[in-house]
Amino acid sequence: MERETARIVVCAPAVLPRLFADDLFGFCALCQTRVIFRPHIPARRVLVCLACFYKHAGPHPRCQVLDQAVAELQAIGIDV
Which neighbouring-strand residues pair with 49? Predict the structure, then answer.
């Protein structure tokens, strides 16, 4: 049997301005926050917001979250 796979896509919160007219919206699989993502990502996907990604994946030796990114998340009201 073929193994099902999906990509985890880390998305920006939908409160940020749209950069492209064809941006799509969805919801974080962990906290249900509305997120924005690009249409070209694969159909088999799990959307995860930046805050959940930071809380569950970082910091880690294979994943570096920059201090500036944390400050930017906090500036838009995301508790990290």
Answer: 11
Please classify residue 7 by burial: count the beta carbons closer than 10 Å to its beta carbon, then call 0-12 exposed, 13-18 middle and 19+ buried. exposed
Tell me which amino acid residue 78 is. Answer: I
pLDDT at 53: 86
CB 71 within 8 A of CB 62: no
Provide the token pair at 33: 């926050």
Which residues fall within 8 angstroms of residue 14, CB to CB, at 6 or more apart?
A: 25, 33, 34, 35, 36
pTM: 0.67
Instruction: Compute the average pLDDT of residues 59-74.
Output: 64
pLDDT in tens, 14-42: 998 888 889 999 999 999 999 998 888 87
Contact 36, 17 (CB under 8 A): no
Quick one: tokens of 57? Answer: 């994946």
